[in-house]
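Consider this pair:
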Amino acid sequence: MSGYDDFFRPEPVEQPAFSGLPPELSPRQRAPRKSGPNYRRILSWIAGITSLILLGVSGIGYTALNNYTGKIKKEDVFAGLDRADTAPEAGKAINILLVGSDSREGLTRTQQNKLSTGRDQGKRSDTMILMHISADNSRVTMVSFPRDSYVQIPAYTDENGRKRAASKNKINASFSKGGAPLTIRTIEANTGLTIDHYVEVNIAGFVKMVDALGGAQVCLAKAVDDKYSGLTLSKGKHLLDGAQSLAYVRARKIYLDQDLGRIRAQQAFIGSVARKALSAQTLTNPIKLNRFLDAALSSVTTDKQLDQAEILRLANRMRNVQANQIEFLTVPIKNSDYRVPGVGSSVLWSETKSAELFTKLRTDTPLSPKAPAVKATVPPGLITIQVLNGAGVTGLGAKAANDLARVGFGMAGPAKNADVTGQESTVIKYDPTNMAQLKTLQAAIPGATIEQSDGLGKTFQVIVGSSWSGATRVTITSAKPKSTTKPTSAADTTCT
């Protein structure tokens, strides 16, 4: 895992007159503390619930919420389920079902042609992801369900009032036959988990959201030319607009394992969107932030229980989540080409491994042991650092430089101000040719985010955030670091 990639170059923060924005989004007015979460809290949650989107995102919070909640469609998705009509109990783990719908609602015929969506009536689900937020808010786990998963669909009453018996079918049939209510019941029946909230994003919303962010970057291991999705890209990195992103997350025939390959691409895309949504260029730019929230929420459908109070509560819970705390995995598979008469090729889950996964989620148990501490092999004295103050806190840059110099690192010069301000976490920017030195710096600044910056040279940049608490003295070892294992996180930037 190489960490954050240098996908998005810093952009100047615009300072126009903010007459078109709600007062809460204007940087010239500071709301009192009790008014609610700030920008970082909002985007932290959006990266979690818009990450959702497959995606990407669907949430927001704080006093500006009044300007957006009216745009969110509400649906009684828990109809017929035996549960209280209230939000989940505070302090407990939460499960949110995220659905990417191929509904053409909101698209003109011209747009449908351009996006290669076809003109099918109704809606189907191309994507289903279970988002699990741990009770202590330290982990966000996102489990993808292949749309061809062969599962038990509970009995239901169709749109014509006819009762349908329980049957085995592909999981996306639950959405086309019974919408969100039957989909939720199907997921619960096959996982043993309780779904607390539901977020659905359609095609139009997906395209608008990506465009509002200024695009999303992806990396392809090989060139593709797919007539089915309209995706034509060369090998390597690409900054995609909304229409191209839609083709990217919908393409599946370009992969040998089709739906499973598409899931890997979708997970990589979510990571890219999460990094962009959490970047300072979005958080500190009121115009971009407003555009993003408006696009994300105007094409979202949620359960009725996800009201303003619940959104604010979730925003507060997610305010400190970083991209490397969002884990992605696919439900364990036994057979990706399981042939069923009358159903066709489907995906059969591994009964043992999937049961183990769902048990861990149900008991809110970490999926894998805590990663071992980073092992440093290069002494700090051989490493040069330029410290930049990204928090905007007077004197913090100088303090961090002194802390790092005290544990042996060399300084390229006095601390300077970064191009961003208001940053909470500390970021280490590095040239990929200096991976061994990076390990030493990571060991000295546990929890720091890393960003690859090609051409940076031998000098590392440490952009200090307001959470800075000092530098740790590093123990040098000759042991080789262990390889990273799955699940992946939103900080991963490998090519798909």
